[in-house]
Amino acid sequence: MDSSTISLHFQSYATESVADTEMNQTFDIAIVGAGMVGAALATGLAQEGFQVALIDRETLAPFDPDSTPDLRVSALSAGSERLLRHWGAWGAIESMRLCPYRRLAVWEALSPMLARLLPDGFNRTVFDATKLGRSHLGHIVENGVTQRALWEAARSQARVTLIQGHEVRSLEQDPDTATLQLDDDRLIKASLVIGADGARSPMREMAHIGLNRDQYAQQALVATVAHEGPAQDITWQAFQPSGPRAYLPLAADRDTAWASLVWYDHPDCIKTLLSLSDDDFLKAVQQAFPSELPHLTRVTARGSFPLFRGHAQRYFNGRVVLAGDAAHTINPLAGQGVNLGFQDAEALIHHLTNARTQGQDIGGEAALSAYERERRPANQRMMLAMDLFYHAFSNARPPLHFARNIGLALAGHLPFARDEVARYAMGLDEGLSARLLRWLDRRLPAFPIT
Ligand SMILES: Cc1cc2nc3c(=O)[nH]c(=O)nc-3n(C[C@H](O)[C@H](O)[C@H](O)COP(=O)(O)OP(=O)(O)OC[C@H]3O[C@@H](n4cnc5c(N)ncnc54)[C@H](O)[C@@H]3O)c2cc1C
Questions:
Q1: Most buried of 160, 232, 270, 302, CB within 10 angstroms?
Q2: What pTM value is reported for the model?
Q3: Does domain 5-62+144-213+310-379 have CATH number 3.40.50.720?
């Protein structure tokens, strides 16, 4: 067996993975993609007694506590924290690095005229954990930290075989089995293949599942920065017509407060920002961001991400089912992507466990369509919510400008709206209610996506 294969199944249970030959292995479930969502699925499915192969083309270096923070970070909701605790990964995240945030603020840069008309802070919505009777609203965690913690959790499960550093070359399906061929010619057979291989998902293509895709006119520039003053416990987003500017606090080390900044703008602007020297970049950020931004001292990483919305036309075909970004990619505006992916994982684990209990085929239509019926509308609602935000705030027309400031004020000042939005942001509800979204949708003008 390849030295990069860590085989951890020593124990027999309901089923056992079977090595037909050195090159062929049979599992209940093969998961392609060991990102945050794939690794969560492997752990949760093994906890339920399934034999799982978890395959990723990348390898992961051990966590280095002296490293500067990664560029890729995610706001993990309280709902995701609950799931990560259940999968046994939260302790490892805590022992590496995380930053709780207790307050979340959203506002729009006002025109001088509107600023004169509206009372100070009128359109600023602040959610405060203490007012909701909670210690925090969520955590900002580096994606690499969450992924490492989940790999550790998966490795601790005897029923998980982690195959890293290998990619899937081809897929074949027959009525009873799906067979994956890896790049070293190994054959992995399973009753079900889960494609958790990200937004570009080769598994989605191999399973002939189409994608509805739309490109947004903005791109996101993400930067890791050090700043003066103490570590912050607030995350904020200030909207501008050309796109929002966001501040996400990161775990501080002994003498430095760190943050992740996101600057959404036209691709030409993002390209220019990426070409600047570190000093000029810091000056540009300090000028363009609101005065709430602490004084920046250093930038250690910068990168840009194209923004698109993609939704798989169906969530399964034959014995292949999709989860996470492979099934849906949404605008990161409200930081919901991986939180939705963890909800997919929870639902899929539930429906597969149910199917097995009822003696059904885990790769069969009944189990997979139950999963699709639960998750597709929920993910669709969140995409609609992000589109409403995007279109409402990326527009300088005065009536809309005024309307959205009233909207922000209402969201912050009316208790029913504030509670609903806060529960949604914390991941305690899976989305804004369909009623609220339909109401907003009817009142906003229709826009093409770009
Ligand atoms: C700028 C930005 C900010 C964001 N902020 C947030 C946030 O605050 N909160 C939030 O919830 N979400 C956020 N997101 C979204 C979040 O990053 C994604 O939803 C999440 O990373 C998706 O996880 P995943 O496991 O589904 O896919 P991925 O993280 O893409 O993992 C896919 C895995 O599959 C592997 N793979 C791919 N192809 C193959 C193959 N053929 N064979 C083997 N392995 C393969 C890859 O190596 C990778 O490890 C943000 C996204 C962006 C762009």
A1: 160
A2: 0.87
A3: no
